[in-house]
TrEMBL record:
Protein name: Peptidylprolyl isomerase
Positions of transmembrane segments: 36-57
Comp. bias (Low complexity): 68-89
InterPro entries listed in its UniProt record: Cyclophilin-like_dom_sf (IPR029000), Cyclophilin-type_PPIase_dom (IPR002130), Cyclophilin_A-like (IPR044666)
GO molecular function, one term: peptidyl-prolyl cis-trans isomerase activity
Keyword set, alphabetical order: Isomerase, Membrane, Transmembrane, Transmembrane helix
Role noted for this protein: PPIases accelerate the folding of proteins. It catalyzes the cis-trans isomerization of proline imidic peptide bonds in oligopeptides.
Biased composition (Basic and acidic residues): 1-28
Region of interest called Disordered, as start-end residue ranges on this chain: 1-33, 61-91
Pfam families in the cross-refs: Pro_isomerase
EC number: 5.2.1.8
Domain PPIase cyclophilin-type: 108-262
Length: 265
């Protein structure tokens, strides 16, 4: 005969077993849910790599001009000056000429050829800033090695939030062809383009150097082409990777622009 104490113990064991079963079921449900979320994020990130670079070459904070990133940098990536504190410099470059921007860096010299006929205001801004020694002593603060393949420079603060206090309009956006079904175009290795905040007409001083063919939306002004030696220097920096083993962040092989000059060719 079962006593009342034995019955209570039996009921307690059964209750405990039910609780354990429910915990296990909840654990499995959570695991399945997390798996689905992870898979969804992977799809989103893959799409981001193809569509974005806002190299996000878009900025997270108001007034920053990042290159797009693979992940929403609200990085880039994405990837300063959403509010202009000073006017854009007066146009003084020869709009029929070609210019060369020479970046003397501690990792090798980089020469960028710029066509003022196609991007007059962009070239003019770089000539103005270089003449003011704006880029001298600045670091290339961002390297991306997955989804998009760019080295981003031009921020005097070195954190992706700096700019000259004015903005310039987008130019030459059709130069790389018509966007595909995914909304992107290919920025060939060696291309130099303007970073922005993700909004039209928000370019400032930050720019990115493409070291491997990269798909991005046609919303970044392509204004220059790197010479062979300069591209090799950027690729060497990229090969060393990102600090901490990440795929987006400060380059492990730090790059400082020691001096920047712009001259008519």
């Amino acid at each position: 005969m079962v006593t009342s104490d034995q019955r209570r113990r039996q009921l307690a064991r059964e209750k405990y077993a039910r609780q354990q079963q429910r915990r296990e079921e909840n654990r499995l449900k959570a695991k399945r849910r997390n798996t689905v979320i992870a898979a969804s994020l992977a799809v989103v990130l893959a799409a981001g790599g193809a569509v974005y670079a806002s190299v996000a070459l878009t900025g997270p904070d108001k007034g920053s001009d990042n290159v797009a990133s693979d992940t929403p940098t609200t990085a880039a990536p994405t990837p300063t000056q959403s509010e202009s504190a000073s006017p854009e410099p007066k146009l003084t470059v020869d709009t029929k000429a070609t210019y060369a921007m020479s970046l003397k860096t501690d990792k090798g010299d980089i020469t960028i050829t710029m066509d003022a006929a196609k991007t007059p205001r962009t070239v003019n801004s770089f000539a103005h800033l270089a003449g003011k020694k704006y880029f001298d002593g600045t670091k290339c603060h961002r390297l991306t090695t997955q989804g998009i393949f760019v080295l981003q420079c031009g921020d005097p603060k070195g954190d992706g939030t700096g700019g000259p206090g004015y903005t310039i309009p987008d130019e030459n956006l059709n130069a790389l062809g018509k966007a595909g079904a995914d909304g992107s175009v290919t920025f060939p290795a060696g291309t130099v383009a303007m970073a922005n905040t993700g909004q039209p007409g928000t370019g400032g001083s930050q720019f990115f150097l493409v070291y491997k063919d990269t798909k991005l939306p046609p919303t970044y002004t392509p204004f220059g082409k790197i010479d062979a030696a300069g591209l090799k220097a950027v690729q060497d920096v990229a090969a060393a990777g990102v600090e901490g083993g990440a795929t987006d962040g400060a380059p492990k092989k730090a790059v400082t622009i020691e001096k920047a000059t712009v001259a008519k060719k």
